[in-house]
Amino acid sequence: MDEYRALAVFVAVHDAGSFSGAGRRLKLSTSVISHHVSKLEAQVGASLFFRSTRSLSLTPEGQSILPAARAMVAAAKEALDILTETSTQPAGALRITLPAFGERSPLHRAILRFTREHPMVAVSMHTSDHPVDLVKEGFDLAFRLGVLRDSALKSKRIGTFGRKLVASPDYLAGRPKIKTPEDLQNCDFISMAMLPNAIALVHKGEQISFVPEHVRLEVHSLSSAKSAILEGLGIQHLPNSEADAELADGRLIEVLPHWRLPDLGIYAVWPDIGPQKHLSRRLIDYVKAEQPKP
Length: 294
Fold this sequence. Notes:
Blueprint: H1 2-16, H2 19-26, H3 30-44, E1 49-51, E2 56-58, H4 60-86, E3 92-98, H5 106-117, E4 121-127, H6 134-137, E5 141-146, E6 154-161, E7 163-167, H7 169-173, E8 188-192, E9 199-203, E10 206-210, E11 214-219, H8 222-230, E12 236-239, H9 240-249, E13 253-254, E14 264-270, H10 278-290
Parallel strand pairs: 3-4, 3-5, 8-11
Antiparallel strand pairs: 1-2, 5-14, 6-14, 7-12, 7-13, 9-10
Helix pairs in contact: 1-2, 1-3, 1-4, 2-3, 5-10
């Protein structure tokens, strides 16, 4: 069993690209990861990794045992997945990542309900407004919003979400009234580093796209953008789930309400490095069923 465990750790180190990354994936300390690799190297009588302060790569000996070690790990995961699929009560662990904002969104609520309804499933939920490397960080599944970039990841569209262009009453009170999209060119905008600067608006079949000329502030999270909008620093679009409460109580006002921002997609994304876990498929189907119908 110690040998099997060491081989599994060896595969995790390779996939994560570092001892610390493998430790985060396996929930073990870096010293424990190093211990297992050292024992495996002592057993085979050779180093398995070239180590430096900046990189980690396989030695010829490491390359020779990686396929068999990976097959062993994949077979173990497949066996556990079969047990999970045939069980009336799903059990196991899921590591997922999704945007940091949106605690009130249907996506977040669906994941929390899934966790509540399946007490034998342990869910580790990582939130970030920036995409993470699913393979290196050891995630089973990610939920991403907007337009997907080309990648080696597999994906499935599970829903859509709407957005509104909003500003605070104080900001709008100090400016000429915004009546047409052309009036937006003289307005201040909050820029979000993870989103394209171009904004598209649709009205009665007509679509226009423009890039704001006056960026008052650039931020790196949607929550920071929302705070800046509420403080009266400018205009930006927010998902409906992030804006509706403030629109209802008057802290935000929709800009050009007759013009609509195109809906964006909600995607489930997972690594293409082996059979997808049954638990991942089960969560995807659950979340898709819980999304509001367009």
